[in-house]
Amino acid sequence: MQVGNNQAGLVGKTQPAPKTESPQKQTTLDKGVDWVKEKTQKGTLVGDHYIATGAGTLVGGTAAVAGIAKIADNVPAVEKALDFVFNKNGRLLAGSISLGASAVLAEDAVQSFKEGSTVKALAETGGAAVAGLGGVELVGRQFNIPVANKALSKTLDFMGDNAQALIGTGAAAGGAAAIKKGVEEIADGNTGKGAAYAAGGAVALLGGGELIGRQFNVPVLKEALTGPAKALFTSKGGMGVAGGAVALTGTGAVVDGARRLTTGKGVVNDAIGMLEMTAGVTAAAGGTTLVGMATGSEKLTQALPETAHFIGATAVLGTAVALGKYTASSMQKDGLTYLNAATGAGAALAGLGGVELVADKLGVSVLDKAFTKGWKPVLGAGLAVASYKLGAGAVAEAKEGNILNAAGQAGLGFMTAAGSAAVLGDALNIPVLDTFGSKTLEFIGDKMARPVFEFAVKNPALTLGALAVAGGAGAYAYYNNKGEKEAAQAAEKPAK
To answer: Cα dist. 349→324, 380, 428 in Å?
Structure first.
């Protein structure tokens, strides 16, 4: 009976409702980005006619500026109005825009912190602070408000005058966080990892303290890091031990960096791997130099100065690997795109640069001009890929019936093909290609683009009127055709 009663009591109890994650708040910046995406996606007037919209905006903007200038020259009232807005109240206008941008960035920074996007949040916070202080200063200068008219410039002066203390504070805070992380890792059983965090944190904490001490001339604090280091490095035994430890740390960083670059995924992972590789080579060379100083070996002492080229090459080649990985992954996932074509070219250029740095140091004459002689063919190949993509896009747009977009992409493809021909012709010393490419680009610039913009400047009213009529007619045809398609689709649906 006792058991039954207990079970009945358990059954009767109400279970707590499962926790549901609160939906993420959409900031003003998010709404703005979404609005732009919504208005420019496929199925919208701008999204379906992006070539005409872009060209019309460019030519129309040129005509509008020319028209305002011409009216201002002839109508004193307009000239005074423009002078009032852009000259007398230009600071007020710019200040208002800056303050608005600051508010938008600050709001998004708060949301980014809540979502855990620390890097993004810090960048937005810095941008909001600069924009806000700049806006206050512009408004302050407009109305000659004593403190406000130097809000940003005084802040920058203060930061410059107290740079050591500010950097030291940041370094000390980072060091304290690293030590805390190290203690947590050791408590979890990751002794090696935790010790590395704690050691790095201690160096950062002491270094930060020393910077603050130097800024304000605090006797003991101003040698918090270098004092013990001086004592250590004055003895040969101390230099040898320290050099060995530093070199060992560098080797570990190189190993972990190589592991990240070859097996890890993501841009952040690759950036960390590249930094680890570079820092590791530097540390290994620096540690070897310390050992050389301790043992009196001239060859070992020259380890760091002699490896400067290799350190630079490591960074450049690490960049090439990271970009190459992204390019391969992106092409496998999305096929050939403008972005992965650009990153592929970047990887090739970085690879050539790294090879040239190493070859120059080792005296390998065949490779010591790898970048100098190789960048033009890489650029020409990149332009050729872009031309291919634009051509494919033109064909796809033509099949959908978007003739203007097709013509625009075909024109851009023709221009990039001409650019590719000019670059490759010059690089490979093929006069026919070089001449064809250069003459084609010259013809497009002088015979096609220049007359359009010259007409817009000389006849702004006619140009704007023509664009308005063309835009209105295009919009009418687009929405009328869209309405007919929707009606036809509705008629095809079977009645329920």
So the answer is: 11, 12, 17
Cα 357 from Cα 371, distance rounded (Å): 9
Tokens of 495: 């009645």
Q: Which residue has the tokens 């496998």?
A: 332
- 217-261, pLDDT tens digit by residue? 988 888 786 666 566 555 556 555 556 655 555 666 667 777 776
Phi, psi (rounded to 5 degrees) for 49: -130, 50
The confidence score (pLDDT) of residue 136 equals 92
pTM for the predicted model, two decimal places: 0.55
Taking only the tens place, the pLDDT of each residue in 62-103 is 888 888 888 887 888 887 887 777 777 788 888 888 988 888
**What is the rounded distance in angstroms from the CA atom of residue 184 to the CA atom of residue 42?**
50
Tens of pLDDT, residue by residue over 29-69, are 888 888 888 888 877 777 777 888 888 888 888 888 888 88
CA-CA distance, 437 to 370, in Å (whole number)? 25
pLDDT digits (tens, 9 = 90+) for 358-409: 777 666 666 667 777 778 888 888 888 888 888 888 898 888 878 888 888 8
Q: How far is CA 14 from CA 6, 11, 111, 144, in A?
A: 15, 8, 35, 67
- Quote the CA–CA distance of 487 and 496 in Å, as a whole number: 17
**Token representation of residue 117:** 């996007």
d(CA 411, CA 406): 9
DSSP summary character for residue 223: G
Put residue 276 in one of left, alpha, beta given phi > 0 → left and psi -120 to 50 → alpha: alpha
Question: 265-295 burial, b for 16+ CB within 10 Å, e for fewer?
Answer: eeeeebebbbebbbbbbbbbbbbbbbbbbbe
CB 404 within 8 A of CB 50: no
CA dist 106 and 126 (Å) reads: 9
